[in-house]
Specification:
Elements lengths: L1 H20 L10 H12 L8 E5 L2 E5 L3 E7 L5 E7 L3 H4 L8 H35 L3 H4 L3 H44 L6 H23 L3 H22 L5 H5 L9 H27 L5 H28 L4 H17 L5 H14 L9 E6 L4
Parallel strand pairs: 4-5
Antiparallel strand pairs: 1-2, 2-3, 3-4
Helix pairs in contact: 1-6, 4-11, 6-7, 7-10, 8-13, 10-11, 10-12
């Protein structure tokens, strides 16, 4: 019976982690225009060096021109930083640096970096939990032989890798189900597949609804709220750096948690661009075939078009970061900024310190905080 309870608990944890990774609506839209105006003043005076990142478990990952730094706040209070040298292939290969192509390549790079950063933060969180459990054990249980310790370590590593594998399978499975299969299936059930424009508009609206509902649901999870707070800390520290490279902790506190170059805005742009690209493609393909596009073929071809859509979305996001005052940019930015009211929360001082340490490490700046440990690793492959 106890084994059944443990397995049920483990399954629940796997599902919850899958949902958390399946991985980024406030009603005050009237405030968005004022926030965009506030952002424009900062973006026009920002440093030429671009910096960005993402929130991880109890920390922040930042990517600079030459380095990637992931800062984690450990249970004992000190900050652990994993620093790796990284130069994008789009800067080393001229062809891959062309517009649209660079967007697709950059997205793949950031997915790889993001997953590695999340895994690092998860491993450190696991170490903290194990250390906490070990303290509560009897001294006799801790006095095991070296062979026993090595055996236990090997047994623990395999379940951890298996556990992570399950969570990613669930995450990608849920992504396929809610953002690809179900929207198309619902559209076909609605008998509107004959008109490509309305079909893709309908599918796009369903995707947006699913995405917003998903964000709202996970925002109630305690661990996710912590990640959203670190997300806010990431944005605040980037804003502070863009306003003044010699910023302090107090400087970061006065900035908002909403940023126009956020990945949340990028996802919204992808969803909107997908409607346009899929509509054009489906119209051309339907005229060539002379009949309605079968659902399996439609899904397969739309998946193949995702690199182009991500590349176009990247260019739009890049343009919006440089032209925040443009009226079209304001329209595109508004939904993403509105959603960031959910995906970012006000951080505390310790979370801000963690984000600042990640930013400074990524930009090779001096870190003035005590109790900081930096792991300098080889070039990220």
């Amino acid at each position: 019976m106890n084994d059944l309870i443990i397995k049920t608990h483990e399954t629940h944890e796997i599902l919850e982690n899958g949902l958390c990774k399946f991985s980024n609506i406030h009603m005050h839209f009237s405030r968005i225009s004022r926030e965009i105006s506030f952002l424009s003043g900062l973006m026009n005076n920002k440093p030429k060096i671009a910096i960005g990142g993402q929130a991880v478990i109890e920390g922040v990952m930042m990517r600079g021109p030459k380095y990637i730094a992931t800062a984690i706040r450990k249970k004992d209070g000190h900050i652990l930083i994993k620093k790796e040298k990284f130069i994008s292939i789009t800067q080393r290969n001229k062809f891959l640096g062309f517009p649209v192509i660079r967007g697709c390549v950059s997205l793949i790079e950031m997915m790889i970096i993001g997953i590695k950063s999340l895994n690092f933060s998860a491993e450190e969180a696991t170490k903290d939990e194990e250390a906490k459990k070990n303290k509560s054990k009897d001294l006799q249980k801790n006095q095991n032989s070296e062979e026993s310790k090595k055996s236990n370590k090997t047994k623990k590593e395999k379940p951890n890798k298996l556990y992570q594998g399950f969570t990613y399978i669930i995450a990608f499975g849920l992504a396929f189900l809610f953002f690809i299969f179900l929207p198309y299936r619902i559209a076909y059930w609605s008998n509107i597949e004959k008109t490509s424009l309305f079909f893709n508009l309908f599918v796009g609206v369903i995707r947006i609804v699913f995405f917003v509902v998903y964000i709202i649901v996970i925002s109630f999870l305690k661990d996710i709220r912590r990640i959203f707070e670190y997300h806010g800390a990431e944005h605040k520290s980037v804003f502070a750096y863009e306003a003044n490279p010699d910023f302090t902790l107090d400087d970061t506190k006065r900035f908002k948690t909403l940023h126009p170059r956020c990945g949340t805005s990028f996802i919204f742009i992808v969803l909107i661009i997908a409607i346009l690209v899929f509509s054009i493609f489906d119209t051309i393909l339907a005229s060539i075939l002379g009949h309605t596009i079968p659902l399996p073929l439609r899904i397969f071809l739309h998946i193949l078009l995702l690199p182009i859509i991500s590349g176009l979305s990247y260019e739009i996001l890049k343009f919006s970061g440089k032209n925040i005052n443009h009226w079209l940019v304001k329209i595109f930015s508004a939904p993403g900024l509105a959603l960031q009211k959910i995906t970012t929360k006000e951080p505390d001082e310790k979370q801000l310190e963690t984000a600042i340490c990640a930013l400074k490490a990524a930009l090779e700046m001096q870190i003035d905080y005590p109790d900081v440990e930096i792991l300098n690793l080889k070039k990220l492959s």
